[in-house]
Amino acid sequence: MDFIDNNVYNGLSLHFGPRGQNIALVNGWNWISFNVLPGDTSLNSVFAGLNGVIEQVKSQSQAAIYSSGNWIGDLADMSGVANGIMYKVKTNQDCVVTVNGSTIPFNQPLSLITGWNWTAYLPSLAQPLEDAIDSIMTPVSQIKSQYRAVIKIGSSLYGDLTDMEPNKGYTILMSTPGTLVYPYGVVVFPDQRSKKSAAINAQETQFVSWPVIKGNQYNMVAVGKVCFEGQVVNTAGYYLATIGPKGENDGRSLSLVKTGGAYFATILGNTGGETIKFKLINSTTGKTYDTAGSMQFQPDNLKTGFDIKTRSVKVTAPPQGTTMQMGAACTISWEAYEIDKVKIELYKGGKSFTVIAPSVPAASHSYNWTIPDRMPFGSDYQVKVTCVDPGVIAKDLSMMFSIKPTPSISLISPNGGEKWKMKQGVDITWRSLGIDNIKIELYKGTLLKTVVSASTPAATGKYTWTIPANHPQGTKYKIKISSVDAGLNLSDTGDSYFSIGGGAEVLLP
Questions:
Q1: What residues form DSSP beta bridges with 125?
Q2: Are residues 262 and 159 in contact, defined by beta-carbon separation less than 8 angstroms?
Q3: Closest by CA position to 492, among listed 414, 421, 404
Q4: Which one of 270, 288, 310 terminates a domain?
Q5: What is the DSSP letter of 68?
Q6: What is the pLDDT of residue 405?
Q7: Which of 83, 136, 472, 495 is deepest in the core (most CB within 10 A)?
Q8: What is the pLDDT of residue 6?
């Protein structure tokens, strides 16, 4: 057309000639669809150059395998492309299928029957799911891609599939027959979209990584709530992962747990009857929790109301900063969920120090332990409670607490018979355990004469006192040391008197 300022063209038709379509395939199964109709729909032509790499091709009702240089089966060709059919293609390595032909109209009506329909996506650009399926919103029940899905609850869609994209195939479950007509064939600008949200209740951005398999032939959906430590998860940052029989390297899904505990999991698989287990991940702490129960993988199955309960343990005592004495009783307590037996260990400096109890009932929630009389004292002790049920990982460490010896104090010097002189520097020495600070006093007979030190660190074991030049002389002096720590009433004095004199002077009694 010619450019004319402010002119409006009505009824302008755009015609597109032949074009190509490139579809990237991963090793394993791939759900694919075509928006180009090949001139030659034979399997040998469509997959030219990839025979032997492509091992199987399936439509919803037919299949073919490549064996000894030939395609064998009841799927004669790919003519179903013209009718908007999705195919499942199995490869033995990553590759790209290139198809050249005529463009299939994006708005070609696709007839869907009651039940499941393997359906192609005909537009050449992605669009929001709810826009794409607007024509079948009433009869549709589920829509699945190879890795994601939504289900309809009431009049809204719930799940992790937000958009429909070229090259990908979809399975659509209908409650009654309907006709799917895609509304857009090119890019949809924001103001051209419908006012609907794209897949209501869709998953939020994921902040954790989890190795989920690729190349799956089937999937199923599980929906429910997640409970952690006996309560429905009501904190952001939790994810629910599923794993297959091979463990954590056999991930089948990763789903955000929404505030309120709801989850939606599209679980991937290839074999019916596989055992699927669940794990809860806290993306803030990085901790992973086992859960009670499992399910059997069933292709295209929908499990609703499948609630998940985590197996976990949480140490509640001793509390952080507690100081306990050797030889004293200590109560260790915990909360336990969906576990039977626990082991209790004492840690020091981040390493296991001793096993307190190898196995006790988790439901008892507490254990009374008598701290040994002799052990290293320190402020870096912790209690670890670990589930010992077979195949279950659940553990927790308490916060740091202190273990000290039974408090004691003993005066070493002066202990009687010493002769001290005025202006002399003398050492007052002692032994102590479990005491922080002591007071030093001088007595004459039973009378307190002076406080030598109101508080000095007990750990030093020594205090040097310079006797004043004008200090009264005498023979019936004793030193008393006593703890000034709160809650402790410990003291000791010398066994006999010592004297303080001025040199040649006669000592007064």
A1: none
A2: no
A3: 414
A4: 310
A5: T
A6: 87
A7: 136
A8: 59
Q: How many residues does the chain have?
A: 509
Strand partners, 110: 180
Q: Are residues 231 and 304 in the same domain?
A: yes
pTM for this model (two decimals): 0.72
Quick one: tokens of 135?
A: 């024509």
Domain encompassing residue 416: 408-501
* Lowest mean pLDDT, pick from 7-11, 62-66, 142-146: 7-11
The structure tokens 């190349």 sit at 215
Residue 197 in any domain: the answer is no
> Which residues are within 8 A (CB) of 253 and not within 5 positions of it... i.e. 6 or more apart?
212, 240, 241, 242, 265, 266, 267, 268
Bridge partner list, 345: 355, 384
Can you tell me the distance from the alpha carbon of 492 to that of 485, in angstroms, rounded to the nearest whole number? 15
Q: Which residues contact residue 487 at a Cβ distance below 8 angstroms, ignoring those fewer than 6 apart?
A: none
Does the residue 2 lie in any domain?
Answer: no
Q: Which amino acid is at 299?
A: P
Q: Give the burial class of 405: count Cβ atoms within 10 A of its Cβ; 0-12 exposed, 13-18 middle, 19 or more buried.
A: middle
Q: Give the H or E element holding residue 308.
A: strand 308-310
Q: What separation in angstroms does the CA of 338 have from each of 88, 222, 391?
A: 41, 21, 13
Positive or negative, the CA dihedral 92, 96, 98, 104 is positive
Residue whose C-alpha is closest to residue 323's, from 403, 247, 262, 261: 403
Strands (DSSP E) contained in 338-461 are 341-348, 351-361, 366-370, 378-387, 395-397, 401-404, 408-413, 419-421, 425-433, 437-444, 447-457
**C-alpha 352, offset from chain centre:** 24
* 79 φ, ψ (degrees, to nearest 5): -65, -20
